[in-house]
Structures are given as C-alpha cells and as structure tokens.
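Form 7-S
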Amino acid sequence: MASGKQSAESEEAILQGLLAHFSKFSYDKAKEQAEKERDVRGFSGSVVWQSLLSCVAQLATVEKLYMNLSFLTAKGFLRKESSVRASYEALNSELTEMGTERRRPGNNNNNNNNNNNGSSTSATPGSVANDGILRHLCSHLVLFIKARLQLITFYEKLVEMSTNRLMNFEELVCQLTEISTTNSRNFHHPILTPIKTNFTYECDILIHLLRSQIEMQNWGFLPSLLHLHDAHSKLNSWHALVQSKEPKKYGFGSSFLKSWPLPALYQWLWQAKAALVSKFSLYFHETLAAQSSPAEMKALISRQGQACDYVSKIQSFQRKTDAANVCLVLEAGEGYQGPGYHHPNQPTPTPTGINTYPPIFTYPPTKPLERWPSIIMRVNDRNTESALLDRVVHFFDQQIGSTYFLIKVDPKITLVVLFDSKKSEKDSYIKDFIYDLALQLRCNKVFANLKPK
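Output:
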C-alpha cells in the first residue's frame, strides 16, 4: 500500500508540473514532458496513467492552437476538416471513456498492466486506487474541454457580430457570463488549478471589457472606468503568473507586447483594453482634462500607449479642413447625470428641451451655441436614422450657409462635423475621416481583429 501511495503522489506531482507549463503558455514543453514521461514509464505505469499522459500531450497541442486563435482561421475550399473544435471533441470522447469506465467481469483494464511482451502482472490495491483518482481527473478535464468548446462558439459569434453595423454587446455579455458562471463550479480539482485560473482570467477580463463598452455607449463615466480598471488589474495579475520572474508592472497600454512572444488571444485582450481606454479618453476627455494641464494630459495618453489618440487626431483634422466644430452628441434620457462623478443618493433631474442632446466632446472646446438647435434637428431627423448607421450623411443649410456631416457612432451617440461654408458631399478626405473615426469608435474592428489574418 505504501508503494501505491507513493506512486499516486508521484503521478499527482508529475501532473501538477505538466499543467504548470499550461499556466505559462509553455505548451510545447508540456507536450514534450508528457510524452517523455509516458515513454519512460511504458513498462511500469498503469494503462490509465499512460492514456492520461497521452491526453495531456494532445491537450497541450490543442490549447496552443486555441490560444493562437487557430479556430477562427478561414477554411479553404475542399480543405479537410481538422479544426481545433474537432480536436477538442476527440479528446472529450477519449477522456469521457476513461472517466466513466468501471470494472466489469472479464475486464482486466484495472487489474492488469500489459507490457510489450504480452505478459501481465496483477495490479496492487494501491494501483487500482490510483487509477480511480486518475479517472476522476479525466472527468474534470472533460468539463474543461466542454467549457473550451463553449468559448469557441462564443468567439465565433463575436467575430461574426463584428460585421454588423452596431454590435449587440448586451447579448454577448449575457452569453459569456452564463459560460463563466456555469463553469465556475466545474473542473475545480486542485491539480487543475493552472487551467482553471487561465480560464477564469480569460472570461473575467473579457466580460469587464464588454461591459465597459456598454457603459461608454450610455456615457457612464464611473461604471466604464471601474470595468476598465478591473480588466487592467486582472490582466496584470495574469501577467504576473505568466511571467513570474518579471517584476515590472505595466500601465494601461499594450506597447510592451510588440516583441512579446505570447499567444494571440492573450495579446489581443491587452490590445482590446488599450482600444477601449482610447475611446474612454475621448468620451470623457472634458472630465479627465479638468484634473490636469493639456501638456500633462497629452503626455499621459502617450505614456499609456493607447491604441489611438483620438483627440489629437480630431484636432489635426479640424486644422486641415478648417471645420467650425467636431462634436459627439449624446441622446440623453432618463438616468442621465452629466459628466464626471455623481453621488448615488443625489438624483439628477432628467434633461428637457435642448439639454436632451448634450455634447460629450467638442473641438474647438467652445460649444457652437448658435448652431446647436440645427445640429439637434439633424441628429434627431428620423428620415436619416437608418442611413446614419451605414454612411456619412451630408446636409447643406442654404439659409445660413453651413454644411453638416453626420454619422452614428454608438446607439445614442452621433458624430457631427460642422463647416461654416459649403462643402461637397463628395469630399473624400472629410467623408473618409469621419467614416473611419466612427468605425474605430464602434470598436467593431477591435473584435474583428480576433480573426487571424
């Protein structure tokens, strides 16, 4: 019995070592060591142990493909299906069989270990007990693989939805939250802690990013800030596990990833956060700028390594085109509280009249008061509501000699560019800039970038 106990402890230690490589994305090393251990113990290990090591080696291979987003790679015409999903499903079948197999009359799998000579030796009670533990681990790995398959379906939907004019982030959050909540109680064996931790970080970070996008669409300063902060904190915590010898702490940006040989999915999470921080810096620029000087604000944005400095981009466009104003107009409704922080127990009256359409960003900073009623009329024109989602809408007001270019950025936010002169609706520089800016702020491209080029 003592030897059986020592064997079980040895096998658990080996599995812990193998899965520790998973937590650092060292999948090749995990595969190599699993296969080496399987070959070394070819004559002494149980059949279940041999099979589990083979499955761990296969899992390392498919996890590497998953983390590099290979499941989103386009399939070529007449290409034989050998997808990441199919590999997970094959592993799922093998582990399910191992996890549910029981002793039956005439079934010697648990009682005998066959060597290459065809001879057999009776298994000790300890080895049978060891097999029971290993089969239990197999059943946990089955639950992990099912969770992975659910995430593959989610990412496929995410990329597909990125082709829509406006993405339904609420639907995505609901689906991902259900996956996370359902699997929070699964594959919880201590030996599987590395893959459980990676799975939890992945889900939590993405949920916070999606929720920050929803809050920004509604111009919620504090909730969007908190979700971005939580995503940032969890990314840094995950990074500390991945690169445990690296003492450096990283900021909100993702510039350090440029020469970082880590999986595509992990890097994309950093890049998605940087893109959303850039959007946050534009939507709440007035509130953030009030806390620092223009020079400090610009230096901070540059130092954080954001995906895009939208404010500088808009300022440059305004100077080149001599636009009278570039603004983002919010369709405020019930629950609107205005910019910045607000005490939760101090309700703000719902805006009425012209205040129902406040500017959340305007450059030059002075709001064009004399043009605001006209801007609101263009934003609120239901005849162009659908067109604003697809293209840049042009309007020239002959009475006052002003030109308006408009496009919907988020469900309640419209980008408006005003000129105090007549501009052609075929002006490609103006229209291309506005259209590209709107697509960037919608963040569709951020999520479309999940798909490997």
